[in-house]
C-alpha cells in the first residue's frame, strides 16, 4: 500500500521587501511632518513675541533735572592710632607739619627743634559725595586714602577734617574710625597682603554743615536735560509733557534741554515733578 504525503505549503512569515520599504517611508514622513509642525509653532511664538509693543520709557529714565545733582567734597586730615603702620616722618615731612599745626590749635606748643618720630600717624585725603538736597545734620559716607607711605590704615581713627567743595567753602566735617577691607601679615621675611590696606571708608563719617543752593526752587521754570543728545527725543518729550499738562507747558530749547513751566509753591512743584517724571 502506497502512502501519499501531500506537500505542505510553507507560509511566508516576513513581508515582501517592497512592503517593508513602503512602511518605513511612511513612518519617516510622519516624523518629518511632526518636526515641521513643531518648527512652525516655535517660529509663530517667536514672531508673536517680537510683535508685542515695546513699553515706553519714562521721562525719569531719559532725562535729569538741571541743577539737581551730587557735589564732590575733598579734605586733608590725619589718621591716628595706627599700630606702627603709619607714615615714616623722615620721608613725609608734611605729616609732622600737620601734626604740629593741629597741636598748636589745641593749645599745645612743642619746644623748638623737636623732632617727632611717630609711626602711628598717617596723612590722608578724605573724599565724599554730597547728595542733592542734602541738609545740615545729614550724614554721608566718606573715603579715606593714604597720602604718604603708610603701610596700613587698619585700626586708625580719622580726626576732625573739614570737607570743601569746588568753591572752597566747607560743606561737611568728617571724623570716625576707618574701616579697611583688606588684610595683611608678615613673618620671616615674607609678606602676604589681601586687597588694599592704605584706603578705607567711614560709614556716615561726615556730617553736612551747609546746604548747596539749587535752582530747583529759584525760578518758575525748570529744565530737563536728556542723558543723550537727540532732537527727536527732545521733541517727543516736550510733546508728551504738553499733552499731559497743556499746550504750552514745555518747550524744547535744543537737542538736549527741555524747559518746563512749573508751579511756584514748593509742595505743588514736588507733586508736579513726581507726575512729570513718570510720563511715558
Distance between the termini: 112 Å
The helix tally amounts to 5
Helix content: 25-40%
Number of strands: 12
- The computed structural class is alpha+beta
What's the average pLDDT? 83
- How do the SSEs run, as a string of H and E? HHEEHEEEEEEEEHEEH
Q: What strand line-up does the widest sheet have?
A: 2-3-4-9-6-5
Low-pLDDT runs: 1-15, 50-54
Q: What composes the largest sheet?
A: 6 strands, antiparallel, barrel
Apparent shape: flat
Q: How big a fraction of the residues is strand?
A: 25-35%
Keywords for this structure?
single chain; four-stranded antiparallel β-sheet; 12 strands
In short:
The chain has 280 residues and is an alpha+beta fold. It is built from five helices and twelve strands.
List the helices and strands and how they pair.
Layout: H1 17-50, H2 59-62, E1 63-65, E2 71-80, H3 93-105, E3 121-130, E4 139-146, E5 157-164, E6 170-177, E7 183-187, E8 190-194, E9 199-208, E10 221-226, H4 231-245, E11 250-252, E12 257-261, H5 266-276
Antiparallel strand pairs: 1-10, 2-3, 2-5, 3-4, 4-9, 5-6, 6-9, 7-8, 10-12, 11-12
Describe the structure.
This protein has 280 residues and is of the alpha+beta class. It is built from five helices and twelve strands. It has a six-stranded antiparallel barrel with strand order 2-3-4-9-6-5. Strands 1-10-12-11 form a four-stranded antiparallel sheet. The termini are far apart. Mean pLDDT is 83; it is low at 1-15 and 50-54.
Amino acid at each position: 500500500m502506497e502512502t501519499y504525503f501531500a506537500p505542505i505549503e510553507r507560509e511566508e512569515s516576513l513581508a515582501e521587501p517592497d512592503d517593508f520599504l513602503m512602511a518605513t517611508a511612511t513612518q519617516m514622513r510622519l516624523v518629518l511632518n511632526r518636526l515641521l509642525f513643531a518648527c512652525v509653532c516655535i517660529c509663530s511664538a517667536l514672531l508673536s513675541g517680537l510683535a508685542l509693543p515695546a513699553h515706553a520709557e519714562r521721562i525719569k529714565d531719559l532725562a535729569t533735572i538741571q541743577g539737581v545733582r551730587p557735589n564732590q567734597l575733598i579734605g586733608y586730615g590725619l589718621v591716628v592710632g595706627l599700630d606702627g603702620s603709619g607714615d615714616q616722618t623722615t620721608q613725609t615731612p608734611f605729616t609732622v607739619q600737620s601734626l604740629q599745626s593741629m597741636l598748636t590749635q589745641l593749645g599745645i606748643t612743642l619746644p623748638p627743634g623737636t623732632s617727632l618720630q611717630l609711626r602711628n600717624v598717617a596723612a590722608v585725603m578724605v573724599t565724599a559725595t554730597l547728595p542733592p538736597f542734602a541738609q545740615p545734620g545729614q550724614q554721608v559716607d566718606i573715603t579715606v586714602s593714604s597720602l604718604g607711605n603708610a603701610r596700613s590704615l587698619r585700626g586708625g581713627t580719622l580726626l576732625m577734617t573739614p570737607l570743601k567743595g569746588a568753591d572752597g567753602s566747607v560743606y561737611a566735617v568728617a571724623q570716625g574710625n576707618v574701616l579697611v577691607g583688606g588684610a595683611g601679615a608678615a613673618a620671616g621675611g615674607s609678606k602676604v597682603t589681601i586687597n588694599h590696606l592704605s584706603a578705607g571708608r567711614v560709614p556716615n563719617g561726615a556730617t553736612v554743615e551747609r546746604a548747596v543752593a539749587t535752582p530747583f526752587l529759584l525760578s518758575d521754570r525748570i529744565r530737563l536735560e536728556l542723558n543723550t543728545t537727540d532732537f527727536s527725543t527732545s521733541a517727543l518729550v516736550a510733546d508728551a509733557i504738553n499733552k499731559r499738562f497743556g499746550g504750552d507747558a514745555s518747550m524744547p530749547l535744543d537737542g538736549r534741554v527741555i524747559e518746563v513751566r512749573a508751579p511756584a509753591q514748593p509742595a505743588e512743584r514736588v507733586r508736579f515733578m513726581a507726575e512729570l517724571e513718570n510720563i511715558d
